[in-house]
Write a structure and sequence with these properties.
Elements lengths: L2 E8 L2 H14 L7 H7 L4 E2 L12 E4 L14 E7 L2 E6 L8 H18 L8 E9 L16 E2 L6 E2 L20 E4 L16 E4 L5
Antiparallel strand pairs: 1-5, 1-6, 2-6, 3-4, 3-10, 4-5, 7-8, 9-10
This protein binds zinc ion (ZN) (2 copies).
Length: 209
């Protein structure tokens, strides 16, 4: 299954600007993590004519489980970068079904739109286009190419390299103790027990793996 990068451009320039500010305010720029460095080395196949390279200021964002329920995955993360042209969203999970990438990105675009305008996103308010893709198999923890030596975690069902194949090594079931989570929106709620945790969207600061 291929992985994709999307450009999300709102038709109103001020919405793009607010989206950029939102991302910047919620998540300060940090030193690139090993995962980002690994991703930047990957060769992207452009869907459109323009060359695509991995943005340097990627933020890792955990999306609501409802968005990926039909794919059978949980705690799905996408990588987001924002500039005045809009958002770049990278979906790198190999286990998502065909068509799921775009749905996740569209939901994400709608959530950001609602956050900055207070309104629901209409179809004509956003230009969402697949921009580039790659077909390599990569570890979803560190971003390194697995070269046919990939492992599926029995717990989260995602794809990892030899070093990160065990649930412990990629933070499986220990999400709450890793990194620092900043939440989007006022609907987010958190309970300390970890049960019934209902978060609309959590933006997770990328930890160094
Ligand atoms: Zn790895
Ligand atoms: Zn796992």
């Amino acid at each position: 299954m291929s992985r994709r990068a999307y450009k999300v451009k709102y038709t109103k320039a001020q919405v793009n600007e607010k989206a950029r500010k939102l991302a910047t305010r919620k998540l300060p720029v940090r030193v690139p993590t090993p995962k980002q460095k690994a991703l930047s080395k990957l060769h992207w196949l452009p869907v459109q004519n323009e060359e695509f390279t991995t943005p340097e200021d990627l933020r890792e964002v955990e999306v609501p489980d409802e968005w990926t329920a039909e794919d059978g995955t949980r705690k799905e993360k996408v990588l987001v970068s924002a500039d005045k042209e809009g958002l770049t969203v990278i979906v790198s999970d190999a286990n998502l079904k065909e068509g799921s990438c775009e749905r996740i990105v569209r939901n994400f675009a709608g959530l950001v739109y609602k956050e900055v305008t207070g309104e629901e996103l209409r179809e004509d308010e956003v230009d969402l286009s697949p921009f580039a893709m790659f077909r390599h198999t990569i570890c979803e923890f560190c971003g390194e190419q697995t070269e046919g030596n990939s492992f599926t975690c029995p717990v989260c069902k995602r794809c990892f390299c030899y070093d990160h194949r065990s649930p412990e090594s990629h933070g499986c079931n220990r999400e709450k103790s890793r990194g620092e989570t900043v939440e989007f929106g006022s609907k987010a709620s958190r309970s300390d027990s970890g049960k019934e945790r209902r978060t609309t969207v959590a933006i997770r600061k990328i930890f160094c793996g």
